[in-house]
Amino acid sequence: MRKLDRKNIRVVVAMSGGVDSSVAAALLKRQGSCAEPGRSIDVVGIFMKFWSDQSASRIVTDKKDNTNRCCSLESEKLARLVAKKIGIPFYVLNVEKEFKKKVVDYFLEEYKKGNTPNPCVVCNKEIKFGFLIKKALELGADFVATGHYTRISVIPSLTGNPGKVENTLDSRFRGNDKRQFKLLKGKDKNKDQSYFLWQLSQEQLSHVLFPVGGYIKPEVRKLARKFNLPTAETPESQEVCFVSDSVNNFLKKYLKPSPGEIKNADGEILGQHNGLWFYTIGQRRGLEIAQGPWYVVGKDFKKNALIISKNKKNLLKKELIVKNVNWVSDEYAEFCGRRKKSILDVEVKIRYKSNFAKAKIFSVGKNKVKVVFQKPQQAITPGQSAVFYKGKELLGGGVIIADD
């Protein structure tokens, strides 16, 4: 982590054309305008042009339209208007090639394996806080800011007391080169996006700012109106930014059909499916099997069979295995590996919209843990992220894998 120059600071803001990143940029610009004499804070807006499905790039003007605004010409136009309004330079960075390789190809490969991936997690690690940070530093920037609803706490050193929870530049000058960064939930419980950031490293966090993490969504809307931003009433966007229609329709364009049998838990054949990748654990709609409702409870890859059940209890499991574990804080870096008998009491989210569930986690190998829940959880889905929390702090996370 390089030493920061307290007097000359440059912040690159990832602007998507949405209200959250717009307010993040406006808050930073305002902070720069109120900086103490002798301090220079330059704010630069960057719109990243991602790869998208062909129809996803069309201009969206109808607020009732569900097409994602991310990557669209309208989004770029709005982000540019915001930058002009608040008086900051604005640039477009084409990351289509990198995004396609790191995010979209991963998304398709995981579905081919029968998993249900979370592309936002990979995008945050590889693109927004990977590729963009690298480019920003090359251009002389110190920080990258986004509109994520999450917060960072700075600890002066690993053995020191936690610093104040701040989303300001001043908090970054506390402590020495051994300072640590804790990733915390956003103030808005309904909008908290820390779940998507479990793959971030200490090095990445040292260059990140989350200006809206200490606000709730209505407050952000209110600030957007106060600053008279053209994005103040911009509607929410869907989660998978490069999919213009449904995920299933997107998959049908890029994955070939692989028909197989649909069976119940007793092995009785009830119908046919077009490919295991078109279904996810817990799915109810689209099965087209009579006398329902039926739920997807499993996938038999050896027999290419989809297993369904009428009994929702068949979706309940008390344990899961997580691979590719990343610990955000160095405090837990050695939990996997040498400390194989270590146990942690945590709360776990098994998908973005799930509730926090109390559990114990056990190391079962290199970057691999076993999660045992206090109460059985429904529709544990391979490919999704299991993210570990202690109070407000995000400790780390990993990718759920199928039963052996």
Essential attributes:
single chain, 404 residues, alpha+beta, Rossmann fold, SH3 type barrels, Elongation Factor Tu (Ef-tu), domain 3, 3 domains, 5-stranded parallel sheet, 7 helices, 18 strands, 22% helix
Architecture blueprint of SSEs:
Blueprint: E1 8-14, H1 19-33, E2 40-49, H2 73-86, E3 90-94, H3 96-112, H4 119-138, E4 143-145, E5 150-155, E6 165-166, E7 180-185, H5 202-205, E8 208-209, H6 217-226, H7 247-254, E9 260-264, E10 269-273, E11 295-300, E12 305-309, E13 316-327, E14 343-349, E15 357-365, E16 368-378, E17 385-390, E18 393-401
Parallel strand pairs: 1-2, 1-4, 2-3, 4-8, 9-12
Antiparallel strand pairs: 5-6, 5-7, 7-18, 9-10, 11-12, 13-16, 13-18, 14-15, 14-17, 15-16, 17-18
Mean pLDDT: 87
CATH class of the largest domain: Alpha Beta
- Helix proportion range: 10-25%
User: Span from first to last CA?
Assistant: 40 Å
Compressed to H and E, one letter per element, the order equals EHEHEHHEEEEHEHHEEEEEEEEEE
- Structural class determined from secondary elements: alpha+beta
Give the number of domains. 3
CATH fold field value of the largest domain: Rossmann fold
Structure description:
It contains 7 helices and 18 strands. By secondary structure, it is an alpha+beta fold. It has 3 domains: 219 residues, HUPs (Rossmann fold, 3-Layer(aba) Sandwich), CATH 3.40.50.620; 55 residues, Roll (SH3 type barrels); 87 residues, Translation factors (Elongation Factor Tu (Ef-tu), domain 3, Beta Barrel), CATH 2.40.30. A 6-stranded antiparallel beta barrel has the order 13-16-15-14-17-18. A 5-stranded parallel beta sheet has the order 3-2-1-4-8, sandwiched between helices. Strands 10-9-12-11 form a 4-stranded mixed beta sheet, with no helix packed on it. Strand 9 and strand 10 form a beta hairpin. The longest helix is centred in the N-terminal third of the chain and has 20 residues.
